UniProtKB/TrEMBL annotation:
This is TNase-like domain-containing protein. It comes from the Bacteria. Residues 28-120 form the TNase-like domain. Coiled coil: none annotated. InterPro entries: SNase_OB-fold_sf, Staphylococal_nuclease_OB-fold. Pfam families: SNase (PF00565).
């Protein structure tokens, strides 16, 4: 069960995904973080389904860009903190063709840390004005 709008996740499986992430740059994207809610994992582009973070590629203002960069860096830190699990989202793909997964560790949403820190909102709770 995914954690949309703050609902709990039930995950009885052990966390098994463990790789090192950096921030995506130019060139091929294999395993890296695009922004706070989009990653590449072993060549697959993944949208973190339960959160929405500020934009870094097309921000509406400097404040959104700054917060988006903070969310991106924080997601790198969270993913590199230890093994995690990818839980299927409500749909397999979004409208951009990205696979949809909720990232969990010990049964809790990794994205929840970004929400708690003001760097994300739960997906489905409306789009905030980051500006």
């Amino acid at each position: 069960m995914a954690q949309f709008a703050g609902a709990p996740i039930v995950n009885a499986r052990p966390d098994t995904v463990s790789v090192r992430f950096g921030i995506c740059g130019g060139g091929a994207r294999v395993t890296c973080v695009v922004d706070g809610d989009t990653i590449w994992l072993r060549g697959q582009k993944i949208r973190i389904a339960d959160i929405d973070t500020p934009e870094v590629s097309s921000p509406r203002c400097p404040a959104e860009l700054e917060r988006g960069r903070l969310a991106t860096q924080r997601m790198v830190e969270l993913l590199n903190a230890g093994p995690f699990t990818l839980e299927p989202g409500a749909r397999a793909q979004d409208r951009y063709g990205r696979a949809l997964f909720v990232v969990t560790r010990a049964g809790a949403s990794v994205g929840g840390a970004l929400v708690d820190e003001g760097l994300a909102v739960w997906y489905g709770n409306g789009r905030p004005d980051w500006c």
